[in-house]
Amino acid sequence: MKKSKSLLLSVLMAGATLLPLSSCGNNDKVIRLQLTASKPGDVLTQSATALEPYLEAEMPGYDFKITVGTDFAADGTGLAAGTIDAAFMTASTFATTEIAEPGKVEMILRSTRAGFKVIEDFADKDGDHTSAEARELQLAAMNGKDGYKYRGEASKDPVSYYYAECIIKKDKVAEFDLNKDGAITLDELAGKTICMQAATSPAGYSYPRYAFSQVKEGPNGEKWENGMTMVTSGTPDASKGEYLYVKGSGYSTDFNNLMDGQYDALWGYMDVRLDAFNGGSGWEKWKGDEGVFQDKTYTVALTQGILNDGVAVRSSLDAEVKKGIADAFKKLVKEGDMKDDGKVNDVDGDGKASPAYIINSLYTHTGYVDAKNSDYEEEIEFQKWSAQNLK
């Protein structure tokens, strides 16, 4: 911060005016970035101190002032109010902030993760791999349409979203296929017992419940104004679109219980069956069994894309500064060895943690892609529904 203050003093003494970075009265060329993560405060502070010089090297002429936030919601509030310029942010936080303060916050980056080849292989007519149309194609392929062999293969390139999936035992297809079209859809699970995770799980509970809520018509023409609804005891009324919720106790146990017939369907992350095939702890009986993907299970539904977290800025920030921040993070997340903590694993011997290590240790981010607010339209609708129905 010394160089910034010295520069300001020199300019003022010369009688000139330094253009502000923002419209909030901040006359230093300072970018106020806030870190929030599920880490102890001292760890966040150390990471902030270590990250500042790397960011400043990528944006000459600007100083970074990195502070530690209390939670992501506070970050959204700070960006909307203009008290901070940038922050790491979840998709849900952006969506709720956009609902409350439209147009005040802008997503500029989304983190990436390993994806699935079946998603990469199928897109809609516009080339979008995450639209409802694309998901229908992917779902059909996962169930073997046109001879597609789905084995949970990883995509070539990382993706910035993930899905949750609903699966049943393959030998239940004929029984559940009420309209005899050869495919099972969510409406045909009315009256069935569904295993989902605890209410804190987005992929295992919240997004599945939202997916059910969007099903407005039953297989026999029943009309469900509020979509399919969850009951937690008794016998669900299929004519009303009810399904019985069973709380899961861990995905390996839940998968085994599904295959043993203890319930009719299982919601979980995509693709829970890959863990079964790899045969880790609790999955031992399925190790190496390719049948878990298509021969022994059937994929009923995929949720909308669940967007990864990323970096947001206040919308009023200068366009060049937004681009500079985005470019800096895209470069730094790849810079240096991800294991280089500058201490125990001082890979390059400089006594400093690498930028890649700092970012990954905070958020497990390994890369970024550009994001825009229109990417979050489905997420915004989900958050509006959640506010009314997941209290």
Q: Mind explaining what this structure looks like?
A:
The longest helix is centred in the first third of the chain and has 18 residues, at 41-58. The chain contains 13 helices and 14 strands. Helix 2 (41-58) crosses helix 12, helix 3 (72-81) crosses helix 4 and helix 4 (91-100) packs across helix 13 (377-389). It has helices at residues 2-13, 41-58, 72-81, 91-100, 117-121, 132-142, 173-176, 202-213, 251-259, 272-278, 319-332, 355-363, 377-389, and strands at 30-35, 63-68, 86-89, 105-111, 161-162, 164-169, 193-196, 229-231, 242-247, 265-269, 297-302, 306-307, 310-314, 368-370. It has a six-stranded mixed sheet, sandwiched between helices. It is α/β, with parallel strands linked by helices and 391 residues long.
